[in-house]
């Protein structure tokens, strides 16, 4: 089956720092999505990307859909303590079927 | 707009017992998904419904797991009998229709099998 490699596994940073995480796939995706999950909650959609090369921002978050359609990255600028959580990438293939999730990047922000 | 509702939020059972989870999707959403999320992993799809029909259940362990969405709205997921390795968070999600990646997740049910 399809596999998503998400890195890094975890990050521990100081408040105010910028953060970057990425996802790579062994196959092409039609849509890339980035979710955030906080303890005890379900994943919440942050950014959706529908076109190769697309660069989309949501506040301090910026994500890009790789040109090869096999990768995506998420940047968080000027991190704050409430950014703490697990960030998941997810890809939807060209058949518009199910989502495949990465294993997540755990982000910890020190005040 | 109300989000995806799930109950119970937590469940502890012994192995070989049965358990059922309930999900109420966002109003008007035709597609409903059940995911299993094991600690330290991303969600893994178990089953996908379009209205009251099953679209994809290829990852559902059918010897012990079953799910239904009889009237095309609420859904239940059942495990019978439970095994230790079924300990996980069970997430329900819904989307307006197939083909859209915008899935909205519920808070999940945390299952511990002892």
Can you characterise this structure?
The complex is a heterodimer of chains A (111) and B (114). Chain A has 111 residues and is an all-beta fold. In chain A, 0% of the residues lie in helices and 55% in strands. Chain A has strands at 4-7, 10-14, 19-25, 31-37, 44-49, 55-58, 61-65, 71-76, 85-92, 99-101, 105-110. In chain A, a hairpin with a 2-residue loop joins strand 6 (55-58) and strand 7 (61-65). By secondary structure, chain B is an all-beta fold. In chain B, the strands form two sheets. In chain B, strands 2, 4, 5, 6, 9, 10 and 11 form a seven-stranded mixed β-sheet that branches. A four-stranded antiparallel β-sheet of chain B has the order 1-3-8-7, with no helix packed on it. The radius of gyration of chain B is 13 Å and the shape is globular. The chains are: A mainly beta (111), B mainly beta (114). At the A-B interface, strand 4, strand 5 and strand 9 of A face strand 5 and strand 10 of B.
